[in-house]
Amino acid sequence: MALIKLSNIRRTYQVGNTEVRALAGVDLSVDSGDYLAIMGSSGSGKSTLMNLLGCLDTPTSGTYELANTAVQELTDDQLAALRNREIGFVFQSFNLMPRATAQVNVELPLLYAGVSSTVRSQRAQAALEKVGLADRAQHRPNELSGGQRQRVAIARALVNDPSLLLADEPTGNLDSATSREIMTVLDDLNAAGVTVLLVTHEDEVAQHASRRIELKDGLIVSEHRQGWDA
User: Fold this and answer.
1) Does residue 10 contact residue 59 with C-beta atoms inside 8 Å?
2) Which of the four CATH numbers 3.40.50.1220, 3.40.50.300, 3.40.50.2000, 3.40.50.170 does domain 34-60+76-225 have?
3) For the segment 135-154, what is each residue's pLDDT rounded down to a tens digit?
4) b vs e for 168-207, b when ≥16 Cβ sit within 10 Å of the residue's Cβ?
5) pTM (2 d.p.)
6) pLDDT in tens, 8-40
7) What are the C-alpha distances in Å from 61 to residues 7, 58, 80, 107?
8) Sequence spans of domains, the chain
């Protein structure tokens, strides 16, 4: 079943008197349970595509359906509600609150959703257990390694049980051994049914995905799936 449907997505920006075309007509379908890597050089449009997929931006033209919702028709408040309900984000820089414990960091999306403190605590503990950090729940970010901080970020992304996990260069700030550790976490989550989309410039990271697309000049120029090219 298609979780994401993009049809002729275009995104342009006005920079002074110049119109910059970031996406030039992207068509993409992603099924529930897919594991997709988005690749491309700087300026290819991959960051713009990730922002659109994450409902952080809206297309200039074209249609985007996420979980049968027409994203381009939503108001800002409706977009925010859809993001919190359907999408979990993992960033290169972790984006954790430095003075808060891992538990509190993971609870944040539930706090915004108005979930009670008891339920927040239970669900945050369960999310931390999924990423192997149940015993670090009361540690603050500066008491955790880089890999552990990224695991906290992944737990936070999962705590609302989203339809989609978006990972933007999730290993960019990590050494090779820790990167493999984090990719194993993402692999396991996908094997358990979580739809994972990751943006990366690293071929070794992209190889974890079952499907890969490459962008150039705002267009998808190639797709690879388990050894065959389309």
Assistant:
1) yes
2) 3.40.50.300
3) 999 999 999 999 999 999 99
4) bbbbbebeeebbebbbebbeebbeeebbbbbbbeeeebbe
5) 0.87
6) 999 999 888 888 899 999 999 999 999 999 999
7) 9, 9, 20, 36
8) 34-60+76-225
